[in-house]
Amino acid sequence: MALYGRHVPHPWLPEPTEDLYSLAFKQAAAYGWSFPLSSDQPPPEGQRWAQHEAGGAVPATSAGTGELAWLQAAVLSLPGQSLPIVPMADILLRALGRLGTTVATGLHVLVPLACDAPPPAGPSYGTLLHADVLALADPGAETDVIVTLALPNPDADIDALSAIRQWAPSGSQALLGVVPHAAGASLTPTARSRALGYGLTPTMSCRMRLTEWSLEAAAWLTTHLAESLRHAHVGELALIEVIKECE
Hints:
alpha+beta; eight-stranded antiparallel β-sheet
């Protein structure tokens, strides 16, 4: 996972004693989502992911699509659970918040779609409940986002779009619309490089409308899309990028 946006370091913190890796790790452990591995004490049951690496970078531009932070983790499969995209995004944003003031403008996530269990018939219960929460938003806060998918098979765009449109009504309380993006499939340079490194090709882009713009809403949408793509059988891996459309 990688977050985009703008970040201004705290003026009172010229030389942080903690880096993004340790901040993300400790925050995740505090919530009970991820724990350090040690030879003398196994991690508690129920952790959602095992953190491998995390880091941050100074954005190359001020346009809001510079990569602020990233987190690499092994997702631990738990029956009935969706991918922990929302809590991972929250961890990264909170870690950045300890170092400065952050305005998030998007994210991309490399998501595993293969699983031993059969694909669900619809979005998971937790994902649907989250849509209810996001529906409690100022009607004037509706925001368009550009969603781009990179898939193993570049010809899977029709199946992917069909699955997304089929599942959109299930999340309609937070997801208000889905239309093709006339500009075609185009990832940010960082996301494109990461996708190509895993043999993924930018396949399609959509404009979607959310009840609000927030990193939480973008992470929820990414989770919803990952579940719909798994149902579409478009491959074992996908990269999903969600960016707030420029105003």
